[in-house]
Write a structure and sequence with these properties.
alpha+beta, 5-stranded antiparallel beta sheet, 6 helices
Length: about 250
């Protein structure tokens, strides 16, 4: 199957312009793509949701996140970070209601970002990740809510072995699991030229330091996707790249 590809542009009210592109691919093994991406640079909101549950509705759980963010960004008023957190909480409730109605056990990890006045605000649950790309380097901004991360934190597992651990797919937080979505947040100041990467674990498990190239983000997104499929491809792969570039002087 081919990848879904998206790309949009917005001029930010700062000393930089913002471009973003999104990619989502079912991978080389799965039949259903349970990942969903939300790419809305004109409102400064982005998200990657990685659904869990297969035929129980993992794709629908991920779509619930997108639907709530679409409602959030449909108006014309200013959106605050707290508004985005409320929308994610509403998506959590939507998923739980559907699970109860149909006797399902679906959920979704999520990583969502909002950029306002040069600051990136990130919220996440599960093992979908956010990175900052600066000077050719990758800086992980999020910390996985997963069994293997807890083992790493306890000193019982090395980070290198964590990716190959048999429980590497087991998350400890996700939307649709509890009444409280237990979202974790972080805010970072961006410099012109910084990039943000939001991705599902289908990409992060095969991401390498050399992947943070300075080429145009559409080509970089294509290369990251191709690398993920070539190195693994056993899971759905989704990513959003957000580029903050300085305005050219007149």
């Amino acid at each position: 199957m081919t990848a879904m590809s998206f790309g949009r542009f917005v001029a930010a009210p700062t000393s930089a312009t913002i471009t973003s592109v999104a990619r989502s691919h079912v991978g080389l093994v799965r039949i259903i793509n349970e990942d969903r991406v939300f790419d809305c640079p004109d409102r400064g909101v982005w998200a990657v949701a990685d659904g869990m549950g297969g035929h129980a509705g993992g794709d629908l759980a991920a779509q619930a996140v997108i639907d709530r963010l679409r409602l959030l960004t449909a108006g014309e008023g200013m959106i605050r970070f707290t508004d985005m957190l409320v929308a994610l909480g509403q998506a959590n409730g939507d998923i739980r209601q559907r699970n109860e109605r149909f006797g399902a056990a679906a959920g979704t990890t999520v990583v969502a970002a909002m950029i306002q006045d040069g600051t990136a605000h990130v919220a996440w649950a599960g093992d979908s990740r956010a990175y900052r790309l600066r000077g050719g380097g990758l800086e992980l901004l999020t910390r996985d809510h997963s069994v293997v991360q807890e083992l790493v934190d306890a000193g019982l597992l090395t980070p290198d072995r964590a990716e190959r651990h048999p429980q590497s797919h087991v998350v400890t937080r996700a939307l649709g699991v509890d009444d409280d979505p237990r979202l974790q947040t972080v805010s970072i100041r961006l410099l012109p030229g910084d990039r943000l990467l939001l991705c599902s674990d289908g990409l992060s498990r095969s991401l390498a330091a050399g992947d943070a190239d300075s080429e145009a983000i559409d080509r970089l997104a294509d290369r990251m996707l191709a690398n993920a499929l070539a190195r693994d491809g056993s899971d759905n792969v989704s990513l959003i790249l957000i580029d903050c570039r300085p305005l050219k002087s007149r």
